[in-house]
Amino acid sequence: MDTVSAIRDRILRLCEERSITVGRLAALSAVPPSSIKNILYGKSNDPKIRTIKKICDGLEITLGEFFGTAEFEALEAEIR
What we know:
Layout: H1 3-18, H2 22-29, H3 33-40, H4 49-59, H5 63-67, H6 70-73
């Protein structure tokens, strides 16, 4: 799994856990729905940390909580 896929999966899982839609997440985080959809549907190959931070703020979690999962721990180096 690559970093962008891990970010996408994490956002989807958090929305599912909270029973919220992408539109609701956009409203909670003050991020345009199109930006979130671009991350989720693979159009954004390098989501900005500021966007992820806003999503975390909307979900009332820290960046550490967002990235502190087994999926992120298991990521391999992308620079070789």
